[in-house]
Amino acid sequence: xxxxxxxTILGFxxxxxxxxxxxxxxxxxxxxxxxxxxxxxxxxxxxxxKSYFDEWQPDLIVVGLPLNMDGTPQQVTFDAKKFGxxxxxxxxxxxxxxxxxxxxxDAKQHLFEHGGYRNLSKDNIDAESARLIxxxxxxxxxxx
Length: 144
Prior knowledge:
The protein is α/β, with parallel strands linked by helices. The chain has helices at residues 46-56, 75-91, 103-113, 122-142; strands at 8-13, 18-25, 30-40, 43-44, 60-65, 95-99. The chain has one domain: 2-Layer Sandwich (Nucleotidyltransferase, domain 5). The protein has a six-stranded mixed β-sheet with strand order 4-3-2-1-5-6, with helices on both faces. Helix 3 (103-113) crosses helix 4. The two termini are 15 Å apart.
């Protein structure tokens, strides 16, 4: 896969109540947090989801896989895969899954450093986690 293959990437940090969203550009290898989509038991608000796809028209979807610290799957790992596979099918877009261990802790640390406690809203944390997932994908795919 070359950088020109996937220009715009929409990344997701799956959760049962909120799903963080970020957009990344392969040319720069960077991503920006966009916000989050409300979900009910892991089922996202379809209109919110569609608005991100309509706006960004991604060439690739990246979904974080929440694994146990020892790398083994847990129930939410399977839920995240199901969510990602449904997105790929519904939006006819290729998908990649990325190990997301520790992204929430890293997201909280980054947000706190750049705005203190006020910056630690759930929406900010989920979107920042999605940004880290996309950038992790870039590092593993195009890394040095």
